[in-house]
Amino acid sequence: MTTAVVDAHATDHDDHGPEKGIKRWLFSTNHKDIGTMYLIFSLVMFFIGGAMAMVIRSELAVPGLQFVHPEFFNSMTTMHALIMVFGAVMPAFVGLANWMIPLMIGAPDMALPRMNNWSFWILPVAFGILLSTLLMPGGAPAGGWTMYPPLILQTGDAFPFLIFSVHLMGISSIMGSINVIVTIINMRAPDMTLLKMPMFVWTWLITAYLLIAVMPVLAGAVTMLLTDQFFGTSFFLAAGGGDPVMFQHIFWFFGHPEVYIMILPAFGVVSEIIPTFSRKKLFGHDSMVYAASCIAFLSFIVWAHHMFTVGMPLTGQLFFMFATMLIAVPTGVKIFNWVATMWRGSMTFETPMLFSLAFVFLFTIGGFSGLMLAIQPADVQYHDSYFVVAHFHYVLVPGSVFAIMAGAYYWLPKWTGHMYNEGLGKLHFWASTIFVNLTFFPMHFLGLAGMPRRIPDYSTQFTDFNTIASIGAIGFGLSQLLFVLVLLTAKKGAKATDRVWEGSHGLEWTVPSPAPWHTFTTPPKARIANEAFE
Amino acid sequence: MIRKSFLSLFGLVLASTAKADWALNMPRGVTDLSVETFELHMMVFWWCVAIGVVVFGVMIISLVKHRKSKGAEPASFSHSTVAEVIWTAIPVVILLIMAVPAAETMIRLEDSRDPEISIVITGYQWKWHYKYQDEGIEFFSSLARPSLAARPKQSGVDVNSVENYLLEVDHPLVVPRGTKVRLLLTSNDVIHSWWVPDFAIKKDAIPGIVNETWFNANETGTFRGQCAELCGKDHGYMPVVVEVVEPEAYQAWVNSHNDGEDKLVSAHQN
């Protein structure tokens, strides 16, 4: 029996290629094809969620209602958030993981290929359901992506569909995470010990554990909403003896680790790119691993800093303030280590590096506002104002999204076998960076001046910065079309070498460009491969 | 090219907004605690600026000097325990410097003992209800008529012509200056949040729960805020307006209110 298994592994798969037509994608168990589908799916969602952001910013460009009614405006903010978080950012990182983790650890594929297929194909169904609520009586969910009861229970026909789609997204994420963990633990090249793993693999391993820990919590929370609505329970209904605040505790026990689920893989991507274009090893690889683990641990004990205004006991608030402030320490270590990696390097500034540098600058600004938000008395002022909107968009857009863009440019030649158009890439970078700041920086001022978030119309004193933010948002949205242009012209460039970048390092650069359909059918020696590049 | 069009857009915005407010910062406010909160906010802000100058400074020096086009040769170091201990320890010290005054302010903020006036605030979709516990006064406070008339789509009213658009109510909360006012917040339907930036107070009004907070205003005047927790379609249309008046004027208001004619309110409604 054992020998049969070994024989099956030894079989060379190069003689058969992918299936033809739609079946290749529908029934795919190949990590590269599934990775591609994840990435395309997330790009589509990025544009759909982006279109909703355009509706929001158009309405807010000047005071008074111009285009939409308040109910629809609330649907737009709710759907924009759900789609960007669960449809764009998370699947993009899963796509990068699918493509790159097996290549980085020298595995022939993900450990559970059929589950991999399933975890992807659940997503279009989940988002099909979610988007269909836009056409339902009562409109799409409008209670905010945080789904706080009792308000969310006022949703119309869309309510059960919202819950069901959130369940599906959770199932997809959990299956994807199981796959990542099993692959990383079992399928590394024989001499790749855990601490020798590339940072992207490390951060994804930690992220996958976070996902498995918290997605079931979200599922529990929304299931209780469902039974409160339809089956007569009163988990969150005060009239029946329930507690609306309990939902917030459960939601943010999921929600805060979720924040790190969206940023840890970004740390990983940037930790791959900065050493490559600095032509220098990542500074403090092991302390980066410990810092990421610390962040993951702390993410479980800070959730109530999202709830400083709900009326908690003083000691509870003190605990959550101190714990939250502590996160600045490991996050600082990461930023200092990236700077130390650049220090006395030999830097060049191709598009992936530009996006990574902007990531370090702008994510740090988001980190600063995060530290300000941790200070409870000040948070009472910032809470639910545009200051918070500025903060989380700084960590999510020039944070996570820029890291995804950086990763896409970095690995695109490995995927397509051709260099992308560097001029176009740089134009995309500069347009994105200028407009992202024009959009989100003024929101700090709006929040401090007293503008609440999630309002469709505002007092005239807030006009100026809102107009600037709206101009920036439209500019940012249009700039992303340049990325589509880069993708459409991706195969027109020069042939890429196997190593692609002068300073690249790691197993993924030992396979040909484009990476063949099957790679590493026999396990490589990671150490030898790496030394070839020294 | 891009930068140029960006600058001209910026110029356009500057030119088109004669009504400019351009408020950049949090208000200092009119209570002792709002001033403390403001100072905490500024202290953390300046620490962030200082850290930013150092980190971004080093990074920018590196970006300028250590580039391949300038012939920089990569160094081979990849860790330094000393450096890593230092840049773990220094942030811990900075955090302690921030945490101590923050905790002190927080303890004062939570101390709502011995109030002179207690007011029960109930959130409704989409208005506030105020009830003075000892004075026997209670009333609803909703968006004022001029804003109400201007807010719909194609209302035909230029919102810029409405004074305090969306920040005016028919019946403001009236409180005396220099008096400790305790607020007891709850809600009749969904969660709302009562926010007045000048008092540095934001507290959720939650059905089934009574939350407590307090303020003591040092200055008279009209102070405006809004509901801060998404509460449905008209979440943006339930402002908070507080009139802080001299204690004698407050007493006169209480008396006139109980006599059936409300001078302050009729002054607001014009």
Quick tags:
A: 534 residues; mainly alpha; 67% helix; disordered N terminus; B: 270 residues; alpha+beta; five-stranded mixed β-sheet; elongated
The largest sheet of chain A is: none
DSSP summary, beta strand count of chain A:
0
> How large, in whole angstroms, is the Cα Rg of chain A?
23 Å
The sequence of SSEs of chain A as H and E is HHHHHHHHHHHHHHHHH
Low-pLDDT residue intervals, each spanning 5 or more residues of chain A: 1-10
Tell me the series of helices and strands of chain B, N- to C-terminal: HHHEEEHEEEEEEEHH
CA radius of gyration of chain B is 25 Å
- Approximate shape of chain A: globular
According to DSSP, the number of beta strands of chain B is: 10
Averaging pLDDT over every residue of chain A, what do you get? 94
Structural class of chain A: mainly alpha
For this structure, the quaternary state is heterodimer
Helix and strand arrangement:
The complex is a heterodimer of chains A (534) and B (270).
Chain A: H1 2-10, H2 22-26, H3 31-60, H4 70-105, H5 113-132, H6 158-186, H7 199-230, H8 244-278, H9 285-298, H10 314-326, H11 328-342, H12 351-374, H13 376-382, H14 386-416, H15 422-449, H16 463-488, H17 526-531
Chain B: H1 2-16, H2 32-65, H3 81-109, E1 117-124, E2 127-132, E3 137-141, H4 145-150, E4 173-176, E5 181-187, E6 192-196, E7 201-205, E8 211-215, E9 221-227, E10 239-245, H5 247-258, H6 263-269
Parallel strand pairs in B: 1-5, 4-10
Antiparallel strand pairs in B: 1-2, 2-3, 5-8, 6-7, 6-9, 9-10
Helix pairs in contact in B: 2-3
Q: How would you sum up this structure, described in words?
A:
The complex is a heterodimer of chains A (534) and B (270). Chain A is mostly helical and 534 residues long. Chain A is built from 17 helices and no strands. Chain A is 67% helix and 0% strand. In chain A, helix 4 (70-105) runs parallel beside helix 14 (386-416), helix 12 packs antiparallel against helix 14 and helix 15 packs antiparallel against helix 16 (463-488). By secondary structure, chain B is an alpha+beta fold. Chain B has a five-stranded mixed sheet. The chains are: A mainly alpha (534), B alpha+beta (270).
